[in-house]
Design goal:
Elements (H helix, E strand, L loop, with lengths): L4 H9 E4 L4 E5 L2 E4 L5 H10 L9 E3 L21 H17 L2 E2 L10 H7 L8 E4 L13 E4 L2 H10 L1 E5 L2 E8 L8 H12 L7 E6 L1 H5 L2 H9 L8 E3 L4 H10 L4 H11 L12 E6 L3
Parallel strand pairs: 3-4, 3-6, 4-5, 6-7, 9-10, 9-12, 10-11
Antiparallel strand pairs: 1-2, 2-8
GO biological process, one term: L-leucine biosynthetic process
Cofactor: [4Fe-4S] cluster
Catalytic activity: (2R,3S)-3-isopropylmalate = (2S)-2-isopropylmalate
């Protein structure tokens, strides 16, 4: 039976399906930041729990970090007291539980959805979550990536699994070439104008078409990032040569492991004849 990319990723990570129509799926990568993690860590302490799989978790402060900070920076220099407390608490929690963090003094610190791919922690075929709605960004790498709430952050830390309801499939084909001055964000905004801010609600949107095939990974990440603005929980794009080249340049995988993984990664696309609940084609050249 022909499957969509979303269906493939879902089946690959399905642990258990419940009578309630919810399912338990395994999570490969969990990104953490300072805003949605403090209560989750407190929940672990209260229940005397430890993270199930430490190396699946990567943390960085990115919501409350000043963008202008000179050559060096310390937490103590953050002016806003609430922002400072959140960054300090992330430091404490990561140190206590042994979670790898790129802290405010690290040159690798950055926006979590950019830092992850750039440092090679986002790999094709992964399930990825973070306490941030724009986690859909990582879907550009052929990942099933979504934002989760604070209680779910705690659940993933403790079990490495997530209880959710499977989404419907939606396909958006961007065909043509962009005119000068038009960017990937512009076509995402056009999509939102076309279907509305709730047009993708309850769906995972797979972006495809000739424009997507020609787009850089950064452009693809922008489009998947904005899937949430169209109401979708998930945005994703099939793996191709552009994806493989980016991952090769940014990951720390050995050549042997990379070559083995590449065989699987190349299967991460929707099959011919796969059924989508909704389809839409947009000519980006117009």
């Amino acid at each position: 039976m022909a499957k969509t990319l979303y269906d493939k990723l879902w089946n690959e990570h399905l642990v258990q399906k419940y009578d309630s129509n919810e399912s338990l799926i395994y999570i490969d990568r969990h990104y953490l930041h300072e805003v949605t993690s403090p209560q989750a860590f407190e929940g672990l302490r209260y229940k005397n729990l430890s993270p199930w799989r430490l190396d699946a978790n990567i943390a960085t402060p990115d919501h409350n970090v000043p963008t202008i900070r000179g050559e060096s920076f310390k937490v103590e220099l953050i002016d806003d007291e609430v922002s400072k407390i959140q960054v300090v608490e992330l430091d404490k929690n990561c140190n206590e539980f042994g979670i790898q963090q790129f802290d405010i003094t690290s040159k690798e610190q950055g926006i979590v959805h950019v830092m992850g791919p750039e440092l090679g922690y986002t790999l094709p075929g992964m399930t990825i979550v973070c306490g941030d709605s724009h986690t859909s960004t990582h879907g550009a790498f052929g990942c099933l990536a979504m934002g989760i709430g604070t209680s779910e952050v705690e659940h993933v830390l403790a079990t490495q699994c997530l209880k959710i309801t499977k989404l419907k499939n939606m396909q958006v084909c961007f065909e043509g070439e962009l005119k000068p001055g038009v960017t990937s964000k512009d076509i995402a905004l056009h999509l939102i104008k076309t279907i509305g801010t709730a047009g993708g609600t309850g769906h995972a949107i797979e972006f495809s078409g000739s424009y997507i095939n020609s787009a850089s990974m950064e452009s693809r990440m922008t489009i998947c990032n904005m899937a949430i603005e169209a109401g979708a929980k998930v945005g994703l794009i099939a793996v191709d040569g552009v994806t493989i080249d980016y991952v090769r340049d940014h990951s720390s995988l050995s050549e042997d492991i990379f070559n083995q993984a590449e065989i699987f990664w190349k299967s991460l696309h929707s099959d011919d004849g796969a059924t989508f609940n909704k389809t839409l084609t947009i000519d980006v050249s117009s």
